[in-house]
Amino acid sequence: MKHVHDSLPPYVKVENGELWLTEDDRENLKISYRIKDIIFSEQSDFQHVMILDSYDFGRMLVLDGVVQTTSIDGHIYNEMISHVPLQFHPSAKKVLIIGGGDCGAAREVAKYKHIEEIHMVEIDEKVVLSCKAHLQEVSGNLSDPRVQFIYDDGVAFVKEHENEYDVIIIDSSDPVGPAEALFSRDFYANVRRALKDDGLMVCQSQSPIFHLDILRQTYTNIRELFPHVQVYTATVPTYPGGLWSFTIGSTKPLSLPETSTIPSDTKYVNEGILKQCFQLPQFLKKALEK
């Protein structure tokens, strides 16, 4: 191993001579992954950052013991949070990504040649650098000249911008620690101000199974600020519950163009997925109607 066992964080343990990562979700659910190797492990100014190589999920980004993305299914999340909103704004020129330190969302956005500027605001530079170096299945070692990396607090950054972006993608981690403020109504109000008159935003809104209260609050906050709001879902095996949600808020009606502009090299998103993902299960439809 590249790191001695006595310096492991408490969520990575040696059992019967094998390494295991155990993620504790809400203190009610524990998910354990058998680990081949510790590729990277350092404490940043904000959180503990690890890149682990696992048996079933390949390399994974782990922040403070919580799996953020993996080689085997990271493309599902990153394609869904990027390509779906961009289909509703096919003429977007300037895109802001808040969070997304694994570079996966920025990598997907950069596939659109008509987009001229991509600003990626990530509070933790160590996350970006470690993913570019050690998690290239997700990051692609992103080096597109249109992508500007801004190492700053996304909440503070968005306050300083008005009527500037066509699309804003909020690719946050769970609403704890540095990411907690990225789920507040005040933050979404500042996002609304930072968008152009015909702009739209999208955020990940957690698990409809285990975090329905967060999803409902996110939906309510965005609905108070945007006239057109829709929730869509995807199955991401890494995330607790599997089923994951995203919420779009738009200043204009959400209608898809007659001709899709989905890139040809996606692994998950296609025209069928694009239409199907807005078909919500009945329990979720009822929860959002309340």
From TrEMBL:
Pathway membership, UniProt: Amine and polyamine biosynthesis; spermidine biosynthesis; spermidine from putrescine: step 1/1
Gene Ontology CC, one term: cytosol
Keyword tags: Polyamine biosynthesis, Spermidine biosynthesis, Transferase
Top-rank taxon, per record: Bacteria
Record: residues binding spermidine: D102, D171, S172, S173, D174
UniProt-listed GO biological process terms: spermidine biosynthetic process
GO molecular function, one term: spermidine synthase activity
Entry-linked SUPFAM superfamilies: S-adenosyl-L-methionine-dependent methyltransferases
Keyword check for RNA-binding: no
Domain PABS: 18-251
Binding site for S-methyl-5'-thioadenosine: Q47, E122, D153, G154, P178
Residues at the catalytic site: D171 (proton acceptor)
Keyword Transferase: yes
Reaction catalyzed: S-adenosyl 3-(methylsulfanyl)propylamine + putrescine = S-methyl-5'-thioadenosine + spermidine + H(+)
Top-tier EC class: transferase
Enzyme Commission (EC) number: 2.5.1.16
Sequence similarity: Belongs to the spermidine/spermine synthase family.
Quaternary data: Homodimer or homotetramer.
Summary of the function given for this chain in its UniProt record: Catalyzes the irreversible transfer of a propylamine group from the amino donor S-adenosylmethioninamine (decarboxy-AdoMet) to putrescine (1,4-diaminobutane) to yield spermidine.
Protein name: Polyamine aminopropyltransferase
